[in-house]
Amino acid sequence: MDRRFAICGASTIGPDIVRLVVEAPRVAAHAQPGQFVIVRVNDHGERIPLTICDSDPEAGTITLVVQAVGSTTTQLNVMTIGEHLADVLGPLGTPTGIDRFGACVVVAGGVGTAIVLPVARALTRAGNRVTAIVGARNEDHLILLNEMRDATNEVIITTDDGSAGRHGLVTDALGTLLAEGDVDYVFTAGPIPMMQAVAGTTRDKRILTVASLNPLMVDGTGMCGGCRVTVGGESKFACIDGPDFDAHAVDFITLSKRNTAYLEFESCRFDEATEAIDA
Amino acid sequence: MPELTKRERMKMERTDMPMRDACDRATDFEEVNLGYTSAMAVLEASRCIECKRAVCIDGCPVGIRIDDFLRYVAEGDIASAAAVIHEDNLFPAICGRVCPQESQCEGACVLDKKGRPIAIGHLERFVADRERTRSLTEPPRLTPPTDRKVAVIGSGPAGLACAGDLAREGHAVTVFEALHELGGVLVYGIPEFRLPKEIVASEISRLEKRGVRFETDVLIGSGTTLEELTSEEGFDAVFIGTGAGLPRFPGIEGEELIGVYSANEFLTRVNLMKAHESESETPVYDLYGRSVVVIGGGNTAVDAARTSLRLGADPVKMLYRRSDSEMPARREEIEHAIEEGVEIRYLVAPTSFNGVDGWLESVTIQEMRLGEPDESGRARPEAIKGAFETIEAAVAIIAIGNSPNPVLTRSTPDLATTKWGTIEVDEGTGETSIPGVFAGGDITTGGATVILALGAGRKAAAAINEYLVS
Ligand SMILES: Cc1cc2nc3c(=O)[nH]c(=O)nc-3n(C[C@H](O)[C@H](O)[C@H](O)COP(=O)(O)OP(=O)(O)OC[C@H]3O[C@@H](n4cnc5c(N)ncnc54)[C@H](O)[C@@H]3O)c2cc1C
Ligand SMILES: Cc1cc2nc3c(=O)[nH]c(=O)nc-3n(C[C@H](O)[C@H](O)[C@H](O)COP(=O)(O)OP(=O)(O)OC[C@H]3O[C@@H](n4cnc5c(N)ncnc54)[C@H](O)[C@@H]3O)c2cc1C
Ligand code: SF4
Ligand code: SF4
Ligand code: FES
Question: Which residue of A has its CA nearest to B277?
């Protein structure tokens, strides 16, 4: 078989964060906001989910933004143009429900900005007024700001240390927006505690709030049930029923616990991958 | 071998399948059964009393001419035996290993009444293995290429069988598979120690030689739709063989705990992703010396239990809610599992998974007794009031069945489905509610068997061929 899934663009956009442009014509032709791919780097590689940040049906390419947190993402971080991924399966998952909601706020933390960006674009295209709140540890960890500015009416930046934008958390900024006036819809992606806090901020006002969840996955096709999340007391398969869910119904504590299932195994692998790359 | 009388033949003992020692085999993934030698095969085949009406054939879902192939084996003419089998079964090396023979061909054999049916499965396996490793038969002559294109969705036994037949008729066949490997349950579900993956790979390469194209990493219905295959990609007909791959959960407390796996997930991690091998990046919980509980009584449950053993788990307990005689798994596997050290508890069902800090620690189970038969004709298990017990479990593996995967059906609104989510088809042809679209295997029946999936794939191939040439 011809080698598929060539990397035709690779650039570093933040600390341990790369943007990869990958040839995957079938995926590019169909990708919708909120959908993801399952990627395998090589023949003994793990299958990991990554959001389709952008797609170009004409060129037959998709854009992935990858933060190195473990073995596979670390390997992805050092891939260069001309190399190939072993597998790219997608687009997977139910696309984000886009409608004319009115005043929308998209809340992103860290690499979650890459997940929020295509949704922000689609919301704007559908005629919404979109405000983005982008949070990060510090100035260096802010990514895709220009893209986000192009995609929305306004971008509010928060950093934990105040090195850029407002000093504080995304939920502080969200709280201010809620106090100021009408917010009809909130979409959030990022670290689990952040999504949980966002859901907590909008819960009392009953504002429709959607979170893009990131459980561990294997096949991404509904076959294994490993990605199950508890939503409204029921088990849902995030890869086919999600990854977007009503943030007010999600059991974030269980999600966050389940994501630690292989921590020990992963840290060994991470060390090996880093050593291999350093050597 | 000298001519034996019918009487003498009836007195002969069934030839046992040589197999690896239980202690030895329970620590690795090499195949358990070693296969007959030629002498064993001839001896076993010559036990067949050549019934005038070979009722064994009625027991085989694809109607292999069993009596004929047995006679050839008895005569030592393996090539002719292989040719007979191949007329009806494209993948005998697989079926010989995984068919539930006791309820099919061997269950129907007249000698079954004496408890000594001919080992049809072992012999089929023998013939197929000889044929595969020594290329005894010529590849089938292919019809000259037609200009018709057929898309096959799913590379399980149903899809592969359909693709093989259509390619022989000269049609251009492309198989789309969601996973990165081909073979469906044959590769991600059934473990290596029962069905070596090398056999599946060799069957697939045979299809490639017939000109079948394979495209992995395509989930039809998520992205590319079925409709686009015909309207944009120029396929003249479609076969759907997407299987029943959506694991069911019992819906009890604690299912979300770390340590609770579906059998599909556990087996996929090990079989497909090779999680137990050191170079694999995919993790699986460390089972070494830890207690594993498997819930269910089918082949999937037995496979999960035996795979756990091989990863070092101790003890491994299977919990089945009915009794021994209702257990749907292959007899041979149940026996092998027990020999290897799997403990089977009958008439118990889990009521909750209990954990500490998000990790599974134990399973509470309820004792059952058998009541009136249900729709399936099997005695319905009923709970015995107050009879609960809690057993330790570091890992629990749920194997209580699968539902049809909804991705394709959800994205194809015109495709008629039943209330169980299976695709409705014409029994005789496999045609669905959409003209030119056919389906077969687990996606139409719910979880069934490899041979039924193969049979359905072939039946649909014949109907598709008819559809394309008319
Ligand atoms: C639908 C979906 C979309 C995603 N999109 C992106 C994306 O666009 N860009 C991106 O960088 N990451 C994304 N992720 C997360 C990404 O899949 C994980 O970071 C990746 O699987 C980690 O693999 P690894 O081998 O590098 O690390 P591992 O060695 O597997 O894990 C290292 C650490 O990361 C944590 N981790 C593992 N898997 C996940 C996960 N799924 N989510 C969060 N933390 C995890 C582990 O708990 C561990 O602490 C997405 C996840 C999902 C489910
Ligand atoms: C663990 C286990 C053990 C078993 N043991 C036995 C046994 O010993 N004997 C026996 O006879 N039977 C056994 N079975 C049952 C048997 O494997 C199945 O009945 C048989 O595989 C069904 O074949 P199929 O072709 O219909 O589907 P499958 O084998 O399920 O194959 C379907 C394929 O389609 C792919 N697919 C699904 N949706 C899409 C899509 N939308 N687009 C592209 N591809 C898609 C899937 O990834 C899969 O590869 C076992 C099953 C399991 C799970
Ligand atoms: S295909 Fe299965 S049922 Fe038919 S003869 Fe072979 S083993 Fe028996
Ligand atoms: S029923 Fe049994 S004995 Fe009779 S022909 Fe078939 S295999 Fe031989
Ligand atoms: S990842 Fe396997 S079912 Fe969702």
Answer: A44
**A233 in helix, strand or coil?**
coil
The 10s digit of each residue's pLDDT in A45-57 is 999 999 999 999 9
User: B249 to chain A: which residues are within 8 Å by CB?
Assistant: 225, 228, 235
Tell me: the pLDDT tens digits for A48-97? 999 999 999 999 999 999 999 988 999 999 999 999 999 999 999 999 99
Residue A107 token pair: 């809340």
Contact B275, A269 (CB under 8 A): no
In contact, B324 and B337? CB cutoff 8 Å: no
User: Does B149-245+404-469 match B6-134 at the fold level?
Assistant: no
- Estimate to the nearest angstrom the gap between the alpha carbon of B412 and the chain centroid: 27
- Give the CA count within 13 Å in the CB-facing half-sphere of B423: 32
- CA-nearest of B300, B306, B273, B262 to B396 is B262
Tokens coding A36: 């993801």
A2, pLDDT greater than 90? no
With an 8 Å Cβ cutoff, the interface of chain B facing chain A consists of 178-180, 188, 214, 216-219, 222-224, 245-247, 249, 251, 255-256, 258, 261-262, 264-265, 268-269, 273-274, 277, 279-283, 285-286, 357-358, 405-407
What is the DSSP-derived secondary structure letter of residue A84? B
Does residue A267 belong to any structural domain of this protein?
A: no
- For an interface test with B, give the residue of A37, A74, A223 to mutate (most B CBs within 10 A): A223
Task: Please list, in sequence order, all residues whose beta carbon lies within 8 angstroms of the beta carbon of residue B367, skipping any fewer than 6 positions away.
Answer: B347, B348, B383, B384, B387, B388, B389
Q: What ipTM is given for this predicted complex?
A: 0.93
pLDDT in tens, B168-211: 999 999 999 999 999 999 999 999 999 999 999 999 999 999 99
A226 lines ligand 5 (CB under 6 A): yes
Question: Could you tell me if A175 and A186 lie in one domain?
Answer: yes
- Does residue A63 sit in the same domain as residue A172? no
pLDDT at B20 (0 to 100): 93
For the domain made up of B149-245+404-469, give the CATH fold. FAD/NAD(P)-binding domain (3.50.50)
Query: Could you state, in order of their start, the residue ranges of all structural domains in chain B?
Result: 6-134, 149-245+404-469, 247-401
pTM, full prediction? 0.94
Task: Give the pLDDT confidence of B240-253 residue by residue, as tens digits.
Answer: 999 998 999 999 99
The CB of A270 under 6 Å from ligand 1? The reply is: yes
Length of chain B: 470
CA-based nearest distance B281→chain A, Å: 5
Neighbouring C-beta atoms of residue A80, cutoff 10 Å: 8
Which of A22, A30, A224, A236 to substitute to test the interface with B, most B CBs within 10 Å? A224
Task: At B388, give phi and psi (nearest 5°).
Answer: -115, 155
**DSSP bridge partners of B365:** B350, B389
Distance from CA of B222 to the nearest CA of A (A): 6
Atom of ligand 1 nearest to the CA of B281: 25
Residue B384 near residue B366 (C-beta atoms within 8 A) = yes
Distance CA A80, CA B413 (A): 42
Residue of B nearest to A215 (CA): B256
Which of ligand 1's atoms lies nearest the C-alpha of A67? 11
Cα–Cα distance, B412 to B406 (Å, whole number): 10
